[in-house]
Write a structure and sequence with these properties.
By secondary structure, the protein is α/β, with parallel strands linked by helices. The chain is built from nine helices and five strands; from the N terminus they run H-E-H-H-E-H-E-H-H-E-H-H-E-H. It has two domains: 50 residues; 179 residues, SGNH hydrolase (Rossmann fold), CATH 3.40.50. The N and C termini lie far apart (80 Å).
Length: 242
């Protein structure tokens, strides 16, 4: 049984505790109201900092022949796949679409261009002409075909980077003198960036080639990507992202 004095002490303590905790309760409720009001704004600011307004993944179509397609290699070692990985490692939000077809010539790419581009792209890498050269086709016709490809890209407002090619030594000096300059000439005409030789660091290096001595192996594709990467990054940095 509790004495009256003890009971009064207990009640007084509870009342005192109630009075002491009241201001804290009001402060806590006020903080909850402020937090609920500001939480959406804080989230919006966080998201804005993580992804700049209007930023989106760039869709780049890699147009080409077997050198782009990844002839003789697993799909995950093809040029577009390794280039995309290298760009993402540099914090570039891009998708590189593999639109390479083994055996394709400049005439073949021109014929399938609209199909390869689909609904459109933010940019295109144009690597074509090696098969024209290996077949000894007239360089003037190759130039006319690539010119038409670039004109169509320009018409569709798709920026492009040109990857050049060199002539095989067995074709002779006169052929090389006619074939090799066409890429620089077209880059000048369209004021487009040019990577002069797609197989730089691979041609003439058997350890970076498949047994056919023409196509890059996995190490060869890595060499191509490492070589062209600075030119691609500089080009991408100038593309619109909205």
């Amino acid at each position: 049984m509790t004495s009256g004095k003890a009971a009064m002490t207990t009640i007084s303590s509870r009342r005192a505790h109630g009075r002491a905790s009241a201001p804290y309760g009001r402060v806590r409720r006020f903080r909850q109201i402020i937090f609920r009001a500001l939480a959406p704004l804080a989230l919006a600011l966080t998201l804005a900092g993580a992804a700049p307004a209007g930023a989106r993944t760039l869709r780049i179509v890699a147009l080409g022949d077997s050198l782009t397609a990844g002839y003789g290699l697993p799909a995950n070692l093809a040029f577009p796949v390794l280039l995309q990985a290298a760009l993402k490692a540099k914090e570039h939000d891009v998708e590189i679409v593999n639109a390479g077809v083994s055996g394709d010539t400049s005439a073949g790419l021109l014929e399938r261009l609209d199909w390869a581009l689909g609904d459109g792209a933010d940019g295109a890498i144009v690597e074509i002409g090696a098969n024209d050269m290996l077949r000894g086709l007239d360089p003037d016709k190759t130039r006319a075909n690539i010119d038409a490809i670039l004109a169509r890209l320009r018409e569709r407002k798709i920026p492009f980077l040109i990857a050049g090619m060199r002539a095989a030594p067995n074709l002779g000096g006169p052929y090389a003198a006619q074939f090799e300059p066409l890429f620089a000439a077209l880059a000048q005409k369209y004021q487009a960036p040019l990577y002069p030789f797609f197989l730089e660091g691979v041609a003439g290096h058997p350890d970076r080639q498949l047994p056919d001595g023409l196509h890059p192996n996995g190490a060869g594709v890595e060499t191509i990507v490492a070589g062209i990467l600075p030119a691609v990054i500089a080009w991408l940095d100038g593309l619109p992202r909205n």
